[in-house]
Amino acid sequence: MRTRLILLLAAMFAVAVVPSSHAAVKSKVVQYEAGGVPLQGYIAWDDAAKGKHPGVIVVHEWWGHNQHARNAADKLAKAGYVAFAVDMFGQGKVTTHPDSAQEFVAEAMKDAEAIPTRFDAALALLKADPHVDAARIGAIGYCFGGAVVLGMARMGEDLKAVGTFHGALATQHPAEAGKVKAKLLVQTGADDPMVNAEAVAAFEKEMKAAGADFRVITYPGAKHSFTNPNADKAGVPGLAYNASADQKSWAELLKFFKKDL
Fold it and tell me: What is the pTM of this model?
């Protein structure tokens, strides 16, 4: 039933072309829905590239589907991937205020099926894109989005490779032995108070017990949200942009995807 619903949603999506900052990179704003909730995503690809290419789902921070997520999609497209920056909260639910962000997360998490349903709806759209090799799909997530993509990996989602940046690692549903199909790259900050050393150690223990193929990279001096240039403007202690960690973590992601995706 769930599969039929996702395929139906994929057939119904509408798109609008928007300008891109790179000559060969094209992008579309995608209007779609999941579970009756209107959503707005963003897909980017290299129009000069021939043939089909790996697809990557991009899941935003708790601020919602904002420019940070779209920038990641553009960078992935420039690197040769077809990237879909998804919407986990609902069209127009974007904020710069932590109280609103917390409300968005709480609402999305209220129904246990909401996140998987919205992820799978986006996944169906990405696989249906004519530029995408549907057998090679990965995912990345930032902060809240990191928790989302790890959650899908824990559930056994059919993904080749999953990367997170300063993503939440704790879970109420630890991975079962042999269930994680995706190879995992987790990148975190050594000075992140929201994802501390204990959380990293617990994640590593969980993944080892599950037999998952994973790697954790920790960046000295980096705090939470180290990839977001606007992190320092949020007024939240523990959030800070770190240009070095941002650049190094992106380079590590591209190496990871080149090998495993």
Answer: 0.91
